[in-house]
Structures are given as structure tokens and as C-alpha cells.
Amino acid sequence: METADYSLFSTLDTDEVTVFADLILPIPVPRLFTYRVPRGMADLLRIGARVIVPFGKKNSRVLTAIVAKLHNSPPTAYQARYISEVLDEYPLVTGYQLELFRWMAEYYMCTIGEVMNIALPSGLKISSQSKVQYNPDFDYPELLTDFEAVLLAELKKQPALSYDELGRLAGEGTNVPALIKSLVGKQAVIVFEEVKEKYIPKMVRKIRLHRNYEEREQLLVLLQRLEKLPKQQEVVMRYLSHVPMQRSPELNQKGLDKTILNQDDELSQSSLATLVKNQVFETFEVIQPRFADAHVPQAEIRLTEYQQRASDDIMAQFESRNVVLLHGITGSGKTEVYINLIQQALSGGSQVLYLLPEIALTTQIVVRLQRVFGDKMGIYHSKFSDNERVEVWKGVISGRYQFVVGVRSSVFLPFDNLGLLIVDEEHETSYKQHDPAPRYHARDVAIMLAHWQQAKVLLGSATPALETYYQAKQGRYGLVELFNRFGNATLPDIRLVDTKREKQQKSMKQEFSSVLLESLGQNMERREQSILFQNRRGYSPYMQCEDCDWTAECDNCAVSLTYHQRDAELRCHYCGHKEQVPRTCPACGSTKVKTIGFGTEKLEDQLQIFFPDSKILRMDLDTTRAKNAYQQIIQEFETGGIDILVGTQMITKGLDFDNVSLVGIFDADRLIRFPDFRATERSFQMLTQVSGRAGRRAGRQGTVLIQTANPQQSILQRIIQNDYIGLYEEEIQERQNFNYPPFSRLIKLTIRHTDKRISQQAADRLAAELTDALGSSRVLGPEEPLIERIRNQFLYDILIKLERDKVNVKAVKAFIQERINDILTDKGLRQVSIVADVDCL
Fold first, then answer.
1. Which whole-number Å values give the CA distances from 604 to 298, 483, 531, 569, 611, in the listed order?
2. What is the mean pLDDT of residues 359-375?
3. Dihedrals φ, ψ of 30, to 5°?
4. Do 186 and 320 reside in the same domain of the chain?
5. Are residues 456 and 325 in the same domain?
6. Are residues 552 and 676 in the same domain?
7. Annotation-wise, does 110 bind a ligand?
8. Among 145, 174, 196, residue at a domain's last position
9. Percent helix, strand and coil across the chain, each to the nearest 5
10. PROSITE patterns of this UniProt entry (predicted)?
């Protein structure tokens, strides 16, 4: 692995030899850029440090780059520009991370700049803002319009103004870019970039007694002097009650949060201000971590006999294998096993990364982990602000956080001493990044990261991905199984409700079968909770005219618009386009426009009608956009404040509620019939996971009701029997027969263009060239995907299937990239976009 060669500078006379740096820039270009290091910076620069550099025509852009290599060889193809500024005294990116960036760029067929751009939190990337200032050398006032002259006179009074500030000064309706262009052309102003680092430490204003009053004698004199000013004396006494400086004088220098003294009446605030003015108190600021020290008492974790046996088996298998799969049924207590292993790794001085598929899952598990690890644990996910993520990043480097729990982006954190990586619910599709590049899978990246750091990986799931279970059965991974529910809780009773028959009998009420409604009512009488699962958000999937069959469709995508009743609008879930709900049909003018189908919002509304006295809440993307929305919903449900929770797949992922005894599942047939080779596997995983939310308390069996129009489907019988092994054996044979993973690797190429003809032309040419070289059995397509137009771009897919043991995958990827480059350099096809998705899902 490449690390900084610090000896370079001890043997180099930097006055005579020029130092160059190869930099990773956060842009989609396939190579590093070489910049010249100014002599004054040569001793400061380290591999992995961030620098600011100019980029683009006439240095029009300012970018944050990472130093990847230091050397003495100037570039031959272009003249090297100078690095503008060094941001870090110590590297914020480790050698392991740089190695990971290189591997991901090659494996996932993207650029190292794209990897860097998604790996670094935004707070570590510099932003630049254009500023305008008066040109002191301006000598041609006769060139100015009257308006420009007035504006320039105001600008002379300011050091500089941003574009927005200049716009406010010029007044509403002013074309600011045209105005600036005119002033620049007349050489009246100078435009420059003000560079700012996005990360801003959290500052707290504190207050302390002036040093003159730290001694007891001076303090007594002060209090006597203030006897005639009782309000001021009260403020001093209040300060001393919080800061017992007579016992420990050094406490005064630490001071007191100013808000503590300011929290009472306005008179005391005025008195405090007077005391500061008279130098009795002094104010100062300190940096405060955004994650306050929890100091949670350490809870003791006691494993059951089965959990202890599983933990021991995992440790034993780690002796000979680097990756172990823990296959444990829902409710078996895998989290306690994880905690036991984390404690062992931390006690050995190693770092630990615990990956979870989604923020919804982190909310509940984080609380359990904090009871054990307190403030030693860092949390990292996208709902945190830029500043919060930067603090966790720097906390890993400083050693404050030896243990981090987070979502897929956590694999990019700057670990350098990993001992254990846990990937919980490893089968989850949320671990796969779809846009933008790199389109990586966090589970696979975690395994590579562990390989470089000689760490161990534990994959956990009740319903493992078929590829993962296959690797375990082949002996490449270790396998430990845990088939006893924690506390002797029993698996739920799963029943199928025939909606086709209920419709014939006219016993369905809206989307609810009579069986489900009756069970919900009985559950509430017992004061027990219910969860209802429907994997569609919104009120209805589409609106349609009864007279002419017109359907509301997105202007930019080939999809119907989803009706959201609360906001009274139609939305596209692909591009975000919104429309008002039409009162009449736009095609024929009919008033018979109705909603078709149902989503979580509609179920919530119907439940309010059926059970008006119940507390019903919805958990989907629409209700959880705010930072703490997940946590608030889960906490309310945990404390019994909600009777029925309606949600999408985010309620399936590892949530643990003791009082849930009923789970209802809608629209199971749509999941099963989805046209994808993984549809059966995914349906089993999703329906089994959501079923596992029921009956997790010992001594009470939960009930799961699956509404289906075809109860005879074999996949539903396997779910009832919790027969993962049977599913695996059936599916793995199908995969082998048709050469799908794990027997092959898949690469999907998506061709996009706003002109359908050009998109098809590029797709046909690319497919033909690939077929000539790889054969028709390995290249499928091009074909239009299910949704053939998104954001006004027409799509074509080419699927490449490569045998695992017969093909040099690295060479094939290089060949594919060459063919893509040929098309993108064709004059008639330059505007085409081609996206490679390696190991596509």
C-alpha cells in the first residue's frame, strides 16, 4: 500500500528541486492531475491531506483535492498549475482509503474522482463563492450608465459583495449577471472567488469571572461593592453557585455556559451585560462537540445458551476464515451476539464498524448500543448535518471513536486499525448505491476493506442473499446458524387471506379483508399493537378517467403520477415533478376521474374511518424526511402511543417491539410477480422480515395475515413454513440453469439520451461490438427497461453475463470501457450518457 514518503523531504533541497503532487479531484475524469507544489508548502504537504487548487479554463473553478502521490516529475502533456493552499496539517484520508478509492474506481467502472466525491462528507469539501469588489484603478466613469454609477458609488463603501448581496443592492428585477458582465467589461469591478471551508465547528459562548477576582479577598471586596447593586450581586452569586471556584479555583477558567445566567428575567441579562462592560466578567468561546458525551452507565449483556454457542462458533470460525455468515431467524437475538463480539474486539484495541441498511433501523439499535458503549460509539448517516458527519470523521482519526455504527457510506470512514466489520441484514438492497457513481455494494466493499486491514467480517441475516448463502455452503465463508427465538418467543402464526374469494362474497371493505379488520379490532381490545405493510407510498398509484381511460402521466418520465391526498397533488416518484389534481379529465372533459390502487396514505385514511378512536401513524418516505422523524415515530410506537403503524419496507428492517402481536400484509402478489430473476428471493426476504415483527415477546404467539388473490403460490407456502433452505435449493438450481449469480457476474450498461433515435443508435452499436467480442450468450439486449424514459431521457439496457471461472473480468471491463469511449468520442453520439452498473441488482 502506498503511504507518504516523508524521507523525500529530508534528502531533498526544496530550493533546487521542484516537488509535484498527483491529486484526486472530485470530478469524473479518468486520471489524476499533477500540480506544482509551491516551495513554501513542500514541507507541509502529506499524502492524504486536502489541498485547494484552481481548475478549468482560466482557473474558473476552485476544487478540494486529495494528495495521492508526491514526486519530482513534471507532467508532459500540460503545464502544471500551482496548488493554492494546504488545508490539513495531518492527513484526513488514510492510505487504506486511497487504496479503497483506487480499487472501487477499477471494479465499479467509474473514476477515482467520483469515488472521492461520494466518500468525503460535503463538510470536508471547500466551496467557493463569487465576490465583486470595486476596482481601485477604474478611470473611465464616463462609460457608466446613471444606474451603474450609483451602484458603483455604493460598492466603493464595501470591501466586497456576493452576487446575491449585489442583487439586493441593485433592486428586484435586475439582471445581475448582465450587470456584472457590463461592469467587468468597463473594468469598473473585479470578480474573485472567496474560498470557504464548509465545516464550521459548533461554538458555545461562555462566561467567567475576571482573573482579578479569583482570589478570595478580591472576591469579597467585589461582593461588598455590589451590595448597593443587588441585581448585579445576584448574578455573581448565581455564577458562584454553578462554579464553586473557592474549592477549585481552576474551575473559573473553564467558565459557565452564558445561557445559564441569561435564562431568567431581562433585568438579570441587563445586569450581566453591565458586569461584562465593567470587566467583572469576561466572555469567551469554546468549540463544543455536536455529539455530547453520553456517559451512559454500561449495561451488562447476558447471552442465552444458544447465543453464547453462536458467539463461540463465530470466533472459532474466524480462526480459519475471514468472513462468517450468521444465519439467525427473526427475533433470535443476533444483536446481543454482535455486542458480545464488539466488546471483545474493542478490548483487544481494534476498531469496529457496524453497518445497518437504513436509518430507520439505526434509530432503535443505536439506543441499545449506547446503553452498552456510551460515548465511545460514533453514529454516521446521511440524516446528520455536514458538520456532524465531519466531527465523526475527525473523531475516527483522533481515536475518539473506536466503534462506529452507520449506513453504507460508513465504509468510507478513515479507519486504520479495523478488527471487526459487522454487516447486519446483509441481504438488504439498501446497501447498493444506485446513483451517482460509484454504484457500489457496501457489503462487498466492507469485505475488501477488511481484507486490506486483516480484519474479520460478520454477515448477519434471517434471510441471507442467495449469493452469500452459496458462498457459505461452498466453504468460502464460515456459517453459523441460530434458530431459537430470544427468550423462547415463538415464531408467528402466518395465515393467508384469499382476497379473490372475499371479493366474490363482497366481504371486502375497501382494501381490507373481513379477517384483517376483525383481527385489528380484537387486537385493539387487548390493547396490543399492529403493523400494516404496503410497499407503495402515496394515496393511489395513479388517476384514471372512467370514460376515456386517460391516465395522469409524468411529463418527464414514462410513469403514471402518484396521487398524494394530504397535499392534494400528483407526484412523480422518479423526477419529483408535481401537478395539481385535475377537476375534470384533460382529454375528454369528463368529471369521472378516480383514483386506482392504494398506497400507505390511503390505508391510513381508511383505518381512521374504521377505527376512529385509535391512534394510527404512517412511516414512509413522505413522513420521515425530517432529521429526527424516524426516531419520533419509533419512540411513540415503543411507548404505546400508537395502535396501528402503517408503512413501507422501512418497517420490515429489524425493528423490535414487544407489544406487536399482529402484522397485516397487502399486495403480496405484486411483489411476487415483479419481472426480475430475484423477485422470488426478494419477496421471501421482505415478507419474512415484516412477519418477524409480530410476537417477539415470550409466551405470546403473534399473527401474520397475508392478503393474496392466489394462496396456492409455492413461495407463500415457504413463507408460512419459514423454509429458507427449501427456497434456496429451488432458486439456486434455477440460477445455475440460466447462468445468473452466483454463477455469473452481471454488468448492466444503461444508454441515455433525450432523443430516442440517438439513444437506440448508440445502444445498438455498443451491443453489436460487445456481442462480436464476447458472444451472444454473454450479451443480452439492448432492450427498453420497464420505465423507458426518466427525466426526459430515453433509456436502453444491455446486460452482460460473465461466468465466474472462465472469464478474465478485469480484461473484459477494460474492453467494455474502450468500446464506451469509442461511442462517446463519436461526433454524432457525444451527448449520449452510458452508465455502467457492476453487480447490478
1. 40, 35, 11, 17, 10
2. 78
3. -80, 5
4. no
5. yes
6. no
7. no
8. 196
9. 40, 25, 40
10. HELICASE_ATP_BIND_1, HELICASE_CTER
Q: Do 321 and 417 belong to one domain?
A: yes
Mean pLDDT value of segment 355-376: 80
What's the Cα-to-Cα distance from 614 to each of 486, 511, 607, 651, 663, rounded to whole Å?
A: 30, 18, 9, 20, 16
d(CA 701, CA 695): 5
CA-based nearest residue to 372, from 335, 339, 348: 339
| CA torsion through residues 595, 601, 603, 604, sign | negative
**Would you state the pLDDT for residue 491?**
82
pLDDT reported for residue 197: 67
Residue 549 belongs to a domain: yes
Query: Would you say residue 14 has pLDDT above 50?
Result: no
**Placement of cell 396521487 in the chain:** 563
In angstroms, rounded to a whole number, what is the distance separating the alpha carbons of residues 817 and 810? 11
The answer to whether the beta carbons of residues 325 and 477 sit under 8 Å apart is: yes
Does residue 606 fall inside a structural domain?
no
Is the pLDDT higher at 841 or at 82? 82
Scanning the structure block, which residue is given the C-alpha cell 428492517? 653
Note down the domain range covering 626: 493-537+612-733
Q: Rounded distance, CA 48 to CA 65, Å?
A: 9
Query: For residue 10, is pLDDT > 60?
Result: no
Query: How far apart are alpha carbons 447 and 471 in whole angstroms?
Result: 13
Q: Residue with C-alpha cell 393467508?
A: 496
Range from 184-198, 255-269, 503-517, 767-781 carrying the lowest mean pLDDT: 255-269
Read off the pLDDT band of 4 (50, 70, 90). Answer: very low
The residue ranges of DSSP E strands in 667-732, in sequence order, are 703-708
Rounded distance between C-alpha atoms, residue 241 and residue 222, angstroms: 16
State whether 216 and 360 are in the same domain: no
End-to-end Cα, the chain, rounded Å:
31
Q: How many domains does the chain have?
A: 7
**Whether residue 573 is found in the same domain as residue 622:** no
Element (H, E) at 725: helix 724-737
Cα separation, 436 vs 434, whole angstroms: 6
pTM for the model stands at 0.82
Rounded CA-CA distance 795/799 in Å is 13
Give the pLDDT confidence score for residue 6 in this predicted structure.
34
Taking the C-alpha atoms of residue 53 and residue 427, their distance in angstroms, rounded to an integer, is 41
840 is in an annotated binding site: no
Nearest of 704, 749, 258, 170 to residue 490 by alpha carbon: 704
3-state secondary structure of 429: helix
Tell me how far CA of residue 593 lies from CA of 361, 544, 545, in angstroms: 39, 6, 4
Which residues contact residue 368 at a Cβ distance below 8 angstroms, ignoring those fewer than 6 apart? Answer: 335, 339
Q: What is the pLDDT of residues 224-238, one digit of tens each?
A: 888 888 888 888 888
Length of the chain: 841
Q: What DSSP letter does each residue of 133-172 carry, written as one string?
A: EE-TT---GGGS-HHHHHHHHHHTTSS-EEHHHHHHHH-T
Average pLDDT over residues 812-835: 94
- Residue 738 domain-assigned? no
Count Cβ neighbours within 10 Å for each residue of 337-365 and write b for 16 or more, e otherwise: bbbbbbbebbeeebbbbbbbbbbbbbbbb
518 domain-assigned: yes
Sign of the torsion angle spanned by Cα atoms 181, 185, 187, 193: positive
